[in-house]
Write a structure and sequence with these properties.
The chain contains two helices and four strands, in the order ααββββ.
Length: about 110
Amino acid sequence: MKKKLLLVIIMAIISISIGCSSAPDAAQIKSDLLGHVLTGTTWTFSALSEYEQFTIISKQKQGDALEYTISMRLQDLASGQHFLADVVVVYIDYGKNWGLSTIVTKLFTRVQ
């Protein structure tokens, strides 16, 4: 009887952990952006230290897509210049994990 109960509990834990993929948080999004270019700009994310501020303004899920509106203050590590960027980042749920799909630049401006 105890073996059956233990087996049921183990199966429940496995099915919960397999069936659930947690949505990306700010740290994951920052990491996922590395190596990507902001559309319509020459900005390429190259280091986590470029992010001075990173704020998720909104998050919206529809079907397998998860859309984030994000506001950032960035610093170019080479020139020291500062930039403001507002972007929409879309992730797709692939079952066990979320994959970065699209980055759309809404605002990109240098801060004086």
